[in-house]
Design brief:
about 475 residues, alpha/beta, Rossmann fold, six-stranded mixed β-sheet, five-stranded parallel β-sheet, 15 helices
Length: about 475
Amino acid sequence: MANNDVAIRFSGVDFEYDNGKVILDDASFSLREGMKVALMGQNGAGKTSLFNMIMGNNKPSSGNIYIDEGRTIACSQQVIPKDQLELNIRDFFASYFKGEDYDLDRKIKEVMEAVNVTLPEDKPLSAFSGGQQARLLLASALIQEPDVLLLDEPTNNLDDDGVGHLLAFLMAYEKTCIVISHDADFLNMFTDGVLYLDVFTHKIEQYVGDYYVVVEEIKAQIEREQRKNAQFAKKIKDNKEKMNYFANKGGKMRLVAKKMRDEIEQMEADKVDVRQEDKTIRDFVIPAQTDFVGNVITITSVTIMKDHQPTEKEVNVILKKREHLLLKGPNGIGKTTLLERLALNNSEGAKILDDVKVGYYRQDFSTLNFDDTVFDALLSVMQLKSEEKMRSVASSFLLSKDVISAKIGSLSEGQKGLVAFAQLVLLEPGLLILDEPTNHINFRHIPVIAEALKKYEGAMIVVSHVQSFLDQIGISEELDLGK
């Protein structure tokens, strides 16, 4: 249980980047030792930036950040840094371990057991699946034995077993924990509070209670504020009409008009600054390529990983237009590798119909050039270049004028995901290959994306561990690599 000792306190903190992007404006909150809270906010609001402030990597422009003296902090990031992908497991953990070298192997064994994963120690991290890498990221934070644990989208890439194990671990965890996640059900199971970073006001709102209770509280608060503002607006309108009437009368009536003008100004000042809810992307359609006839893709064999060794497996999959295939299997069996080979059309056991355009959504966004601007990235996939159409599609995915001119590498993971979906709309593919498409995406957007995929007229292959999402898009066939 949380006690009354303050672990972290922000007092009147302002922070903005050198390019002028504001993240925090007079933000204040405090967390007691042992609290488990969710850090929420729209894609691009600055949640990861806030983590970096707690870690000391970002310094506030003004205000104070108090971390109890001697308290250690560790962060499990969303992805393994590129410069660490070729390290083996021991060297990877050595870069995080604070103890003596002779104790490293024992601690590695402990944290690997804690995250429930067994991997060959001689292979580079790049050889492991997204789910296996997710567990290694959590273990890299645990090996530091922190007093404050920061988790950035920890359920991304995890299979059901991995999510269940992580949930059990967090429910038993006695230290302070802050979690960024768009998985509402996951958050609701173990958090006892919410920090909400408002992308519009750059303030931090703090709520106590599990996630769903907080959502209802925010909804009720917004409704109260909107009702109060509606009352003020009606009163202001009535008084303005009366004020104009008295002002036109002249003489002493002008004094009455002046008094009413002062009352109107006071009511304008008293209007509540209603917290703006997260915007949701607009409904969209992914146009399907139509200039071909026949089976979109035929798969007769696949390569899976069995005991960390490649093994051929015979299958029989034929996908036509409007058919959706779910690719299943535990972390590490080779789902992402198979999707990559299919997307490149270089898998020996699979054949994509000639001239079919493939729209490939990778969970690590490596299909995007991080040095490109969003403008260039979107325009590059269009067969008929139309800046007007491109900007219209970008706008529907909340990619504003400022975002369009930014480089892909400067965007949040959620914004990169929206860019990737916008590309699919502009590409007009005949085959969609989607690798964990809900990762990093604000949960408010997911029903809109699911509806678009449900209506997609081409063929689709998808990997996802989010059952509610799969139910929405509709699955016509399953291929379980683990069976």
